[in-house]
Structures are given as C-alpha cells and as structure tokens.
Amino acid sequence: MADKAKKQEPVDEVGTRTGFTRYKWELKSSNKEFWRSGHAVAKLISVICLFLALAYFNAATAHPALTLIITLEVFIFFFFIIIYTFAIQRYLVFILWPVSDLLNDLCCFGFLMGGIFFAINSRETMPVEYVVGVVSLE
Predict the structure, then answer these.
(1) What total number of domains does the chain contain?
(2) Nearest to 117 by CA among 127, 109, 107
(3) Inside any domain, residue 91
(4) Are 62 and 54 spatial neighbours (Cβ–Cβ below 8 Å)?
(5) pLDDT in tens, 22-65
(6) Residue 89 phi, psi dihedral angles, 5° rounding
C-alpha cells in the first residue's frame, strides 16, 4: 500500500500552492506584513485624524472645499488599506505599489497643506472647533 504522504508546504513562501489555496496564503501573509509592520497603524491614525477634522469642520460650518478635500483623502486612504489587506497588490504587479503609496502620501501632504492654508485664510474668526479641525489636518 503506497499511501502518498501530503507534501508539506513551506511556511514562509508560496511553495506549490495554486488557486484559492495560494490566495489564502498570500492573504494571511499580506495581512501579517501589513498589520505588524506599523504601516497599517500609521494609515489608521491618519484616517482617524481626517475623520476628526471632518467632524470638527462640519460642526464649525467650514467651506465645502475643505470637507471635499478631507473626504477625498479618507477614501484614498481606505483604498490603500483595502489593497494591502486583501493582497491585491500581489496580483497587480504592473503597478509599483510602494511608489504609488509614497506618491499618494506626498499628494495628500500637498492637498492637506493647501487645505490648511485655505482654512486659515478663509476665516477671520476661528472658533475652537475650527482650530481643532485645522490641527487635525496636520
């Protein structure tokens, strides 16, 4: 009786996995890498600050352009969190994800600095909620 022993898959690499089994492994691997490296924590802190700024700007009745900029950045941050969480970056290899994430961070910095400049210049009196919203944009 020749019982074929199931070949042991390597723990730290893809090995001979194919199909859904490979995706499950890559999903677990990507999640560990993304959530443990501190990258996810930085993204979540940024999203929390943006939500805080959005809430305070809505309370202080800010210009609609400010809420639009913040909402845009929140959705872009969620896009990258979803990409990294579900290991989609491993299947779209024609996009350099670290470079696109870096470019997103630089553009986000530029947009938010412009938003801060616009927020400060557009108001003559700044209530406390407005100041907290501006500080949260930073």
Answers:
(1) 1
(2) 109
(3) yes
(4) no
(5) 767 777 766 777 778 888 888 888 889 888 888 888 888 778 88
(6) -65, -20
